[in-house]
Design brief:
This protein has 500 residues and is of the alpha+beta class. It has helices at 8-11, 16-30, 32-46, 57-70, 87-103, 109-119, 126-148, 175-188, 205-211, 218-231, 242-255, 260-274, 285-300, 302-332, 361-369, 377-381, 388-403, and strands at 193-195, 336-338, 413-416, 419-420, 428-434, 440-446, 460-470, 476-483, 494-498. It is built from 17 helices and 9 strands. The strands form 2 sheets. Strands 3, 4, 5, 6, 7, 8 and 9 form a 7-stranded antiparallel beta sheet that branches. It has a two-stranded parallel sheet with strand order 1-2.
């Protein structure tokens, strides 16, 4: 889910050098006119403070750009006219100023201290307040342009992590951390939006869910990529770099079967956003032509295309289970779920314009009409390729939410449920949503579906007192320990309602 971690970008040294470089590119180049305007306001500020009247305009510009580049969040939310600043925002500013000083020891450190005092509202005034307000409006685009629109098109260790609100340096987190985040959301932000695909995502939720399966087979993935790279060497032009080639393979896997036309459009946009070999402002026709020719040759290579299709087939089922689990979490964890257009069925899209293609709503209406209350999970799963399991899951859970709104209200509770397993981490996640009036819902989803066959066989889920009936079938579970695998014998996700 697209949950922003405060200060995430510098909490993990995944590519801090790249981020810093590209945020500076955004600060000076892409947002150069904004920086000049901000610098002119800073000049007016120092004109009122004798200590800094002789400061070079160049140093003022550098201090502003560097501080914005080092800020670990998009922006702070100081209210200078009301003299309000949160302690968390104060900490972010202190972190940014401290980092900026290390990058520019040639600049008087007291100038950075002065800027810090302005941004933390220790020094206020009409023009000073305007500087603080305008800086906050500047730092957000610096982050967006430098990270989302540049770094995320350059750093390809696992592209499913290169997402707005995500952290490419962190490969998931523990069940305990997930539960803690959900409890905090229920307590502080019960009406926060839960989105897994939006108009701005780099890859759709189902594409990311499939790509995440790669983390379960790193050695095999390395072998496959090495084989593809060696086989496609004959299609190479010296202008097409390996980093771009690796990015293409990942996106093909995530969206397969993707047409050459769609990949060509994406590749051109990705290359221009990366700004390494070409850009929107200064297109490199030779590079873009070479990239186009390489993709065309790869699509004409029947051996490679067959190998790609065969590999995707081995991870497709696990990717779909990931997607069903992700959708169930979005619809049942604290917050307000959001469904992006077309994501009711499998939706393997890339960034816009790919995710703006026309949605076949007639098909969705037709499939919905075929779902009646007597349909069985086995009938649904038999039509996996059509995306019917995802549509059915959404319909069933939304109907349950309509019937039990109090379970998912701001006043309801979120309680983690214990999963015990011998050996490695249990391949599941379970929690209880409860209302003050007594209605309760249990959700159990799979983790690591690609590995579930060889791990977690003895994992047990501890259910609270009562009898628990699945909303997907007539399965009933009793209180106490239940084998984790038993929840998924008929459908890959379990959502249980406590019987009265």
């Amino acid at each position: 889910m697209l949950r922003v971690e405060s200060g995430y970008l510098f909490s993990y040294p995944f590519c801090s050098g790249v981020i810093h470089e590209k945020k500076l590119l955004a600060a000076y180049d892409l947002l150069g006119s904004d920086l000049e305007w901000l610098t002119s306001i800073f000049l007016q500020v120092i004109a009122r403070h004798r200590r800094f009247r002789d400061t070079l305009q160049r140093d003022l510009r550098t201090a502003l750009a560097e501080t914005a580049a080092c800020l670990p969040v998009y922006r702070t939310y100081a209210l200078p006219y009301e003299n309000q600043l949160s302690e968390q925002d104060r900490l972010y500013i202190h972190q940014a100023i401290a980092a900026a000083k290390t990058y520019h020891p040639e600049i008087d450190p007291e100038l950075f201290d002065f800027l810090q005092a302005l941004l933390t509202l220790e020094i206020r005034g009409e023009i000073e307040n305007e500087l603080t307000t305008r800086f906050q409006q500047y730092s957000g685009p610096v982050m967006a342009k430098g990270v989302e629109d540049t770094t995320f098109y350059l750093y390809h260790r696992l592209v499913s992590l290169n997402e707005v609100g995500g952290n490419p340096g962190r490969f998931g987190f523990s069940a305990e951390e997930f539960h803690a985040a959900c409890q905090e959301t229920q307590e502080k932000y019960p009406y926060a939006m839960l989105a897994t695909s939006t108009h701005d995502t780099k890859r759709s939720e189902d594409a990311r869910a499939r790509l995440n399966v790669l983390t379960a087979l790193p050695e095999r993935w390395a072998q496959v990529v090495r084989r593809w790279a060696e086989g496609n060497q004959r299609h190479h032009n010296e202008l097409v770099d390996r980093n771009t080639e690796y990015m293409l393979y990942q996106n093909m896997v995530g969206t397969w079967p993707i047409s050459e036309e769609r990949l060509q459009t994406f590749a051109q946009k990705a290359a221009r956003e990366a700004k390494a070999n070409t850009s929107w402002r200064d297109p490199n026709a030779a590079y873009e032509s070479a990239l186009h020719d390489f993709i065309h040759a790869v699509y004409a290579d029947t051996r490679f295309m067959a190998d790609m299709a065969a590999f995707v087939e081995t991870i497709e089922q696990a990717g779909r289970i990931n997607s069903l689990s992700q959708t169930a979490l979005k619809l049942t964890t604290p917050g307000i779920p959001d469904l992006y257009q077309g994501s009711e069925l499998w939706n393997l899209d890339l960034v816009d314009p790919d995710n703006r293609r026309t949605v076949d709503y007639d098909l969705r209406r037709k499939l919905l009409a075929e779902l009646d209350e007597h349909i069985q999970p086995e009938d649904i799963l038999a039509r996996m390729d059509e995306g019917l399991p995802k549509l059915w899951l959404i319909q069933k859970i939304l109907a349950m939410r309509k019937e039990l709104p109090e379970v998912f209200s701001a006043d309801s509770s979120y309680t983690p449920l214990s999963i015990t397993a011998s050996g490695s981490e249990a391949g599941g996640l379970a929690f209880l949503r409860g209302a003050a009036q007594g209605a309760q819902v249990v959700v159990v989803i799979q983790r690591f579906p690609f590995k579930r066959a060889d791990r977690g066989a003895q994992a047990m889920v501890s259910l609270p007192p009562g009898r628990w009936r699945s909303i997907f079938c007539e399965q009933v579970f009793s209180a106490g320990g239940n084998p984790l695998a038993g929840f998924f014998t008929r459908f890959p996700v379990a959502v249980l309602v406590k019987e009265a």
